[in-house]
Structure prediction request, 437 residues.
Amino acid sequence: MNKGINIFLSIPLLFSSSFNKDQALQKPNIILIMADDMGYECLSAYGSKSYHTPVLDSLAEKGILFSEVVSQPLCTPSRAKIMTGLYNYRNYDYFGHLNSDNPSFGNVMQEAGYSTLIAGKWQLNGLDNKDVFPYWNDNTRPNKFGFSEYCLWQLTGRGSRYVNPLIEQNGIFLENTIDDYGPDIFSDYIIDFIERKKDSPFFIYYPMVLVHPPFQPTPDSKEWADKSIWSLKDTAYFKDMVAYADKIVGRIADKLKELEIDDNTILIFTGDNGTHGSIYTHTDHGIIKGGKGSTTDAGTHVPLIIYWPEKIKNGFVYEGLIEFSDFFPTFAEIANTVVVSDGVSFLPILTGNKSITRETAFVSYNPDPIGESKGKNSGQFVRTVNYKLYRDGRFFNLTTDILEKKPLNSGELSEQEKAIRMNLVEEFKKHPDLKVK
Prediction:
């Protein structure tokens, strides 16, 4: 057992692997790209009219576009859930922190023989609570969560994520200038890693820093030539930032093709939560105001596109539910590893059986369980594709009330709606109530 997993020996073993070297080349590479603050409405593949995302649209056309993916409403809660496969009430304690009580998908993939890399946004060392976490400046924590290499923003220090970024790479702060752009540094390192690891299975987790505020010009913006651009902040640049995120995905996809390893590489793109509330997006379904931090659809409905030419021969849209706890068991199944999680593997969708046994999605959300804002915007809900029930009893038909303006009156429900509501009530009984003072 490698050093990266030793921190979990105090709890019951949550996974086992039958990996051997002969199997290594049979396992697919995996690249998970997760944009920061990008709801589903930001991609033209989902009907956006405000932004142009040709690379992601092409991947969606050739792969699978998932239409009903449910995240947490905020970054750290989503990251904790996707990395560990557990609901927030089990493993989320402080904003900006990932506790080590449970293994991450990095540990699982590393133990299964994958070369592992994380690049992009970390923000999981507890920088906001240095008095609580004495290891806030431990630059080996990504390694302890199973990543043999890293290139990260906001690991043990704070600084810009875009122009002249503060980035730590494998224990060393990079020397950057105003000419350097954070997203380019991350993607360059990812491409270098792919080139070095192309002959063995690799797992790359790329939590992007794009498209989170501050909204600033990118190297493709006309304003980039002005050296004062670091001070510009305007939602008008959001369009450029979405386009640049799409471009970076294209760089990675092109490298896979160049190295002729794209067929057996699972390329995944998603977002961690809804778009920032200052952004209004024109779509085929009307104007959508970003809902980051809210438990509404606008805060939890994110894109998911998966491209895997070896297994996905014809692109299609999957209309069933996926929630963030599902990634962990999916990766584990790909790695031939048994794990315990709250999720359901969606590997059968990728390999031809176009359905899984997930009829509901559950979200337990308290953005800051310990801090001064404890309880603000918190809540729990269970939903099907079309209906949503909150712990406090509010019940919505999402097909007719996507903004959740008018709860359904219990006395006016159809027999079918009564049955759906009863099933959701039963689902709630599996989870503890979120008690907020």
About this structure: The chain has a mean pLDDT of 91. The first strand starts at residue 15 and ends at 17. Residues 238-258 form the longest helix (21 residues).
